[in-house]
Design brief:
two-stranded antiparallel ribbon
Length: about 80
């Protein structure tokens, strides 16, 4: 058994990724709990495909909280 849920770790404690804008090449900071980010260089929106067990786990509400769970379920 895990002490902490590995599937929700990047949602509870976000990590930062740097991506390149496909339009202008500028760097875009994207956190692991963001659905999208906007390029500061040109305004282009990139979208992240967040795949997590909180979509189906019966303990998700307890794990990440009701507000976060609603946000992820309303995304689809």
């Amino acid at each position: 058994m895990f002490d902490k849920c590995p599937g929700a770790a990047n949602i509870k404690t976000p990590t930062l990724k740097i991506k390149r804008c496909p339009e202008c090449g500028a760097e875009i900071e994207v956190f692991s709990n963001d659905f999208s980010a906007i390029c500061k260089g040109c305004g282009f929106t990139i979208y992240e495909d967040i795949d997590s067990c909180i979509k189906w786990c019966k303990y998700a509400k307890k794990c990440v909280g009701e507000e976060v769970l609603k946000r992820y379920k309303n995304k689809d």
